Fold this protein.
Amino acid sequence: MINLSGIMGIPLLKKSRFTGSDGALRFVLERRSADGDENQLAAVCWIGETCSDATLEEQKKVRLFPFTDEGLKDAQKWLNEQLSGG
């Protein structure tokens, strides 16, 4: 189970992307700029042993969330759903 509490938060994501894994699930959390300069939190995940740069885009699932603490919690929940085959 992915639990990001205490490990990272929005202040870290303002500066850098965050990568992690749980079993075969790999994921990236990063800030993306949307239209009108509004930032979004992108959660990207895939199954495999390769890093993000070596994984084909069609093998990745992407979901956008608000760039807020609540959006981060929702992204964590979504990633855990992907672990259970969601």
In short: The chain has one domain: 10-83.
